[in-house]
Design goal:
Shape: globular
Helix content: 40-55%
Largest sheet: 3 strands, antiparallel
Number of helices: 5
Low-confidence stretches: 119-124
Distance between the termini: 49 Å
Order of helices and strands: HEEEHHHH
Strand order of the largest sheet: 1-2-3
Radius of gyration: 18 Å
């Protein structure tokens, strides 16, 4: 006869089709730099929030036909593209299109500056 699982022996989660679960607490997410699902990065930290990596990559493939790069690089390249093709859009409108806030875009710009301008491709 098996004993009841304890905190040390019980699995954190058992995945089933169509189930949703909380796999991290708010405290754990404060230190997270990315969130992966099925081995793919789906959210990346940018400043105090997370960016939908799938949205950025889809926009990059559709608008820039590039398909890859760092989160910082994708945000900055996509923002620059939106500014060129829609010059009347405000920063807030461009950021909203990318699913980020203006402060998150500022964090990306600062990270790029610290990395030496255009040398931000390797950043997370």
């Amino acid at each position: 006869m098996e004993s009841e699982p304890t905190a040390e022996t019980a699995p954190i989660a058992v995945r089933r089709r169509w189930w949703r679960l909380l796999a991290a607490s708010a405290e754990e997410l404060r230190d997270a730099v990315a969130i992966a699902q099925d081995g793919q990065t789906v959210w990346r930290r940018l400043g105090n929030g997370f960016v939908d990596n799938r949205l950025l990559e889809a926009a990059d493939r559709k608008w820039l036909e590039h398909g890859g790069g760092s989160g910082v690089g994708l945000v900055l390249k996509l923002d620059a593209w939106l500014a060129r093709v829609h010059p009347s859009k405000s920063l807030e409108e461009r950021c909203s299109t990318l699913g980020i806030t203006p402060s998150m875009r500022d964090v990306a710009a600062l990270a790029a500056d610290e990395a030496g301008g255009e040398e931000y491709e390797g950043l997370a």
